[in-house]
Known about the structure:
- The protein is an alpha+beta fold.
- It has 2 domains: 10-225, C8orf32 fold (Roll); 237-326, Immunoglobulin-like, CATH 2.60.40.10.
- 29% of the residues lie in helices and 26% in strands.
Amino acid sequence: xxxxxxxxxxxxxxxxxxxxxxxxxxxxxxxxxxxxxxxxxxxxxxxxxxxxxxxxxxxxxxxxxxxxxxxxxxxxxxxxxxxxxxxxxxxxxxxxxxxxxxxxxxxxxxxxxxxxxxxxxxxxxxxxxxxxxxxxxxxxxxxxxxxxxxxxxxxxxxxxxxxxxxxxxxxxxxxxxxxxxxxxxxxxxxxxxxxxxxxxxxxxxxxxxxxxxxxxxxxxxxxxxxxxxxxxxxxxxxxxxxxxxxxxxxxxxxxxxxxxxxxxxxxxxxxxxxxxxxxxxxxxxxxxxxxxxxxxxxxxxxxxxxxxxxxxxxxxxxxxxxxxxxx
Length: 327
């Protein structure tokens, strides 16, 4: 599905989401993974750290006849072997990086992940394009969006129709950082391989709208008005939600109505709101109903102030809001 600024604000925009989106696969438990064979083979290859990019691309894909499996193998190898460069992100933001430099150091920022992915696909003659754009990493950005693009991902073409274009985010597939952007924790996350278009479009907005696949926000302004969508939204299949505006304005006297649609694949045991952050953070469990896959509840905020609010499902972050509550 978190996490979650360089030049004070922007460096946190570039990768803080890896912290906020957290780690782990978005696949529900007990569901057979059709890529098990690919994943295990690529994992067994290790770092291949004496080889060049073209050779690595050939080795990781040669065992698989289908293009989907080949692209999965490239996704796997990058996710298993390339680390996020926290120092570069703090100093340079999302500055362009080439594949040769990425393979020398085995670490990079989002542009380097995307460039390496594109180049490895090019070796096996699969069309892949990098996409610069925007991502939302914290509820604060709902009211204070960045001034320039802060993330990069890729789109892969496996056929002629629009349905044969697919989203991949190799950066968010590789792991996450701490909140201060000092430590990267590798944590493979295949939610971002051929990602669900609707959820992906809630999380990513391209600098060139031609690379928005399917329906999504109509403008950068509309994108930053949405709630923050954490990666666990993929696990629960959250494609609809209320409030649809991530900036909640209410009073301590009036309850706020919350609802979200699920795919029904994962049983829901508990729903809660995490209110505030740091030492002021509190978690409030709520009573909810489920009707035809729609989870609904009301909550009356007790504290008149401005603070982040995170919707938790089974103790996992799914949606983030910025609340302004008055008496």
